[in-house]
Amino acid sequence: MDAPILEGDDIRLMPLDLDVLDEMHALGADPDVLRFTYVSAPFTRDDATAWIQRYIDGWAEGTRAGFSIQSTDGEFLGFMAVISIESDARQGEIGYIVAPEARGRGVASAALKLITDWSLGDLGLERVELRMSSENTGSAGVAKRSGFTFEGTLRSLHFKEGRRGDTAVYSRLPSDG
């Protein structure tokens, strides 16, 4: 699968590569990332390298599509991905992490629009979903503002460091507009 550059008014999504290793390493060590995702502490540079490599391999295999979120002048703003692509079922799961200094600036919403439009358009998916900790009210707000429909809660799905947590599921279909 060819890795496109997705451009918006103020941001662009660049195919994920090792050029953003330092930024991804810092992102993975952020306390909110550790709280709301499956990323485990300590998050090492080797972990960041492996994370990026999974997306590089995923592009080649057509199983995932990872991007760095960047401002139009090249500032790293976060990570956005179709973390799983099920081509036969024409569906995928989207995930993202916005850098702490970029939060609250509309970055997540803008990047989510770009990847959703691409996923439901050029990528040919007919359903995309977001899964997040039920405690992550910021991401829930992004999902709602981006036209995703809340489908429900998967109780006690998330397991990390000996704790279970609920997972909220949101979806978007081409017919949702």
Provide a compact summary of the structure:
The chain is α+β, with helices and mostly antiparallel strands and 177 residues long. The protein has a domain at 6-125: Aminopeptidase (3-Layer(aba) Sandwich), CATH 3.40.630. Helix content is 31%, strand content 35%.
Structural description of this entry:
The chain has helices at 21-28, 31-36, 45-61, 107-120, 137-145; strands spanning 6-7, 11-15, 65-71, 76-86, 91-98, 127-133, 149-160, 163-172. It has an eight-stranded mixed β-sheet, sandwiched between helices. The longest helix has 17 residues, at 45-61. Helix 1 (21-28) packs across helix 3 (45-61). The protein is of the alpha+beta class and 177 residues long. Strand 4 and strand 5 (91-98) form a beta hairpin. It has a domain at 6-125: Gcn5-related N-acetyltransferase (GNAT) (Aminopeptidase). The protein has five helices and eight strands. The mean pLDDT is 93.
> Averaged pLDDT, please?
93
Overall shape: it is: globular
> What is the straight-line distance between the termini?
26 Å
* Helix percentage: 25-40%
Q: What structural category arises from helix and sheet content?
A: alpha+beta
- Can you count the beta strands? 8
Q: Characterize the largest beta sheet: strand count, sense, and whether it forms a barrel.
A: 8 strands, mixed
Q: Order of strands across the widest beta sheet?
A: 1-2-3-4-5-6-8-7
CATH class of the domain at 6-125: Alpha Beta
| CATH homology superfamily of the domain at 6-125 | Gcn5-related N-acetyltransferase (GNAT)
**Helix count, DSSP H or I runs of 4 or more residues:** 5
Query: Which second-level CATH architecture of the domain at 6-125 applies?
Result: 3-Layer(aba) Sandwich
Radius of gyration: 15 Å
Residue runs with pLDDT of under 50 for 5 or more positions: none
Q: How much strand?
A: 35-45%
- SSE topology string: EEHHHEEEHEHEE
CATH topology of the domain at 6-125: Aminopeptidase
